[in-house]
UniProtKB/TrEMBL annotation:
Its cofactor is Zn(2+). It comes from the Bacteria. One of its GO terms (molecular function) is hydrolase activity. This is Peptidase M20.
Amino acid sequence: MKFLAFLSFLFLALPAVAQTGLSAEERQIVQTVDAERERTIGLLERMVNQNSGSLNLAGVEAVGKMVRSELEPLGFDVQWVDMRETGRAGHIVATHKGDGQGKRVLLIGHLDTVFEPDSSFQAFTRKGDRAVGPGIGDDKGGVAIIVAALRAMDKAGTLGEADIKVVLTGDEERTGSPIEVARRDLIEAGRWADVALEFENLARDDAGVEYGTVARRSSTGWTLTTHGRTGHSSGIFREGAGYGAIYEMARILDAFRRELPEPNLTYNVGVMAGGTPASIDEQGFRVTASGKTNIIPETAIARGDLRSLTREQDARVRAKMKAIVAQHLPETSAELEFADHGYPPMEPAEGNRAILAKLNAVNRDLGLPEMPEYDPARRGAADSSFVAADVDVLAGLGVVGGKAHAEGEWVDLESLARQAKRAAILMTRYAGEKR
C-alpha cells in the first residue's frame, strides 16, 4: 500500500516537476491560459458565427473589428488596411511597441474563410472538447490562439517589453489582385521582424504526434492552350491535317506525368476542355467546348497548379515544362502560361529549424513531447511564404483539427490552450533576447 501511495504521489507531482524549467512569469502564463479557457472558446465561437468568406467584404471587416477590440486593450496600435482596390476587404496590422531591446516577432494569421454567405455551413456547434464550424481551424482557431497568448503575456507582465506585430490578412483563401498590393503590408512586416510565427492548423498524425512546420511548398497556376488544324476527321494524322488540339494536349499532359516527377513536386490538372471551339472565362475557372466526332478539334485548354519546395526547383521545373510543350505534334502548336501571381515557397532554412528548436525547449519545460519537422509535401501554401525570403519562420502553430475547407470542419478545443501556452512562452523568451 505504501508503494502504491508513493506511485500516486509521483504521478500527481509529474506536471510540477516537468514545468520546473519555467520562470515565475511563464508559470503565470500557463495559469492565465487555463483560467481563460472558456473566454477563448467564446471568442472563437463569435468569430465563427460571423461569416467571413473572402468575397464577403463586410463579413471580413466585421471579424477584423472583433480582433481590434481584443488587441487595443493590450496596447496594440491596430490599423485596418483597406484592400478594396484588390477586390477584397482588407487586413489587420497591429503593432505593439516594447522596449526595443528584444527580438521583434511577427504573428501571421487570416480573417477570411473559404465559406461564402451562400454556403449551407455557417454555425459554430460544440460537443465537449470538439467544436465544428466554418473556418474554425482555418484560421479562426489560430486567431483565437494569438489573442489568448497575448492576453496571457499581458497578465504575466511579459507583453510590455515585447515588440510584436500582428498581421491578419483578409484574403488568404482567395488572394486579391494585384498580389503585389495584396501582400505589400505583410511583406513589409516580414522585413521589420526578426522572427515570424504563423498560426495555420497544427500538423498532427494519427498517432497523436504533433509537428513543427519549417517549410511549405509554393503554389502557382498555369494555363496550357493547344491548337490544331481543324477539318474532317477522316484526314486526321495525315500530312496537312495533323493531330488536332486534343492529341497535342494529351501528349503534353502525359509527358508531364512521365517526365516531371521528383521529391516535393506536384502539378495538378484541375480543369480541361477541347473541341471546336473551346474557351475559358476571364476568371480562369470555367472552360467550355463543343464539337462533333467527325471534326478535328481546333482548340484545347487546361488549367492546373504547380507546387515546389524551393525557388531553384520551381525555375527548373518550369523550364522543363516549357521544353515539353515545345515538342509539337505535326500541324499543332501550344502555349504554356504561368500565373503572374501565386505563393512562393517557404524553403526549409536552418533559421526556421532554430525556431523549432527553441519551441521544443518550451515543450520540454511544459512537459510536452518534442515536435519533429513535418513533411512539406503534406502541407499547402500559406501567407508565411511571403515573408520567408526576409525572416526566419515557423508555421502551423494553430489548432489541431480536420476537414479544413469542407463542411464539418472541426477542432480539438483542448489544443487552443496548449498552443497558446507554447506561443506565449516562446514570444516571452524572444522578447528577452537582445537583438
